[in-house]
Amino acid sequence: MSRSIKPYLASTLSILLAASFAAPASAQDKPKSYKPAAVTATKTTATPKLDGVADDAAWKTAPVYKFKAIKGVNFKDGKGETEGTLQLAYTTDSIYLLITYADPTMSVQRSPFVKQADGSWKKLSDPDDKGGDNNKFYEDKMAIIWNMDNSIFGFNERFSCGALCHAGEPGKAYGNKYSGEEGEIGDIWHMKYVRTGVIGQTDDQYVDHTQYDKEKSPEAGRKSDAKTGGGYNDVKLVDGKPEFMSKDGKAANKGGTYWIREEDKVAFDDSKFKAGDEVASIRVALFTGDRGDIATAAKWANGKWTIEMSRKLVTGSKTDVNFSDLAKTYGFGIAFFDNAQVRHAMIQEPLILSFAK
Ligand SMILES: [Ca+2]
Ligand SMILES: [Ca+2]
Ligand SMILES: [Ca+2]
To answer: Which ligand is nearest to the CA of 135?
Structure first.
């Protein structure tokens, strides 16, 4: 039951423009309308240090936007909600973001292999996961979608990322993501802590109008920028044992890590592990090329994530938002995942970035 939101939007545009608007109760999968919120990037010559610590001079002067994000899972008391702050700064060639938000848990136990009592190895999985919906043994993530060239209909004006969300469709636990028409493209900055955050990067992806197809496009509109190398890869079970381990030989639940840096991977030595030991099921390395444009430092402490990001204002890539005209505004939205594969909390209102002179 794939569906474009465009006809619906077009037919109701005049109503939307005339009055504040709430989606009819009968249309549960139609996005809801929210009032856009202005955020401002401050100009700085003091480049923030990307270390996950918000003590930089730029963050002392950049305006603070306080947000609430809702409708996810996990987070405090299992309510699927979080609150935080957003700040932006820019230099002559780069943009910087500081995002802080509450998360009671630093979640890194992403589907490890566990040694069983009989000596075999088994991947730890969420028993309630019916496909792409792990909410128990995952990682913390944060994702931004930029509405490239204001191409996504209704994004900036009232729907934010909701313009791309197709809840209730078959194939996905939490809905498919794609835009209404060819040419409507969003730039996704997807910070996956275990897979990209720990090595200082955000996964640079994008979303277009591709609808869900079980065979041809199981990810619907979600796609990744081109890469020239690097990235993350699953560790396979070979002859019933993980193919690699980290060279320190430590179990992840005994002082090791739930990821293996590519340069640290060595052949697996089963004799180092006892029943109950967990080892990483993912190898990680920095993306190079278009997919590796976003430098990141993410740090969790005392129930809060602090994430600093930077990217060139202009990359020239067709799958990146390019801040080439600082007199223009740029619409975006942000989502937060607490130990969840897809069920994210989100800021409801469209965020509209302008660059202070
Ligand atoms: Ca810093
Ligand atoms: Ca968490
Ligand atoms: Ca890119």
So the answer is: 2
Find out whether 113 and 347 touch, Cβ atoms under 8 Å. no
User: In terms of C-beta density within 10 A (0-12 exposed, 13-18 middle, 19 or more buried), how is residue 57 classed?
Assistant: middle
Q: What is the predicted pLDDT for the residue at 169?
A: 85
Which pLDDT score, from 0 to 100, does residue 171 have?
Answer: 79
Q: What is the pLDDT of residue 208?
A: 98
Residues in a beta bridge with 265: 246
Segments of the chain scoring below 50 in pLDDT: 1-28
Q: How far apart are CA 165 and CA 186, in angstroms?
A: 12
CATH number of the domain to which 74 belongs: 2.60.40.1190
Find the 303 Cα to ligand 2 centroid distance in Å.
9
Write down the pLDDT at residue 29.
56
d(CA 282, CA 244): 9
> Among 345, 290, 352, which Cα is nearest to 315's?
290
Ligand 2: distance of its center to the CA of 125 in Å? 17
Is 206 in the same domain as 258? no
Alpha-carbon gap, residue 175 to 91, rounded angstroms: 37
pTM summary value: 0.91
What is the structure's pLDDT at 26?
36
Same domain, 350 and 299: yes
* DSSP H helices in the chain: 6-18, 57-61
Task: Compute, in angstroms, the gap from residue 295 CA to the centroid of ligand 3.
Answer: 11
Enclosing domain of residue 202: 32-105+140-222+295-357
One domain for residues 237 and 256: yes
3-state secondary structure of 271: helix
Phi/psi of residue 83, nearest 5 degrees = -130, 155
Q: Does 71 share its domain with 144? A: yes
Residue 147 inside a domain? The answer is yes
Question: In angstroms, what is the span from residue 1 Cα to ligand 3's centroid?
Answer: 32
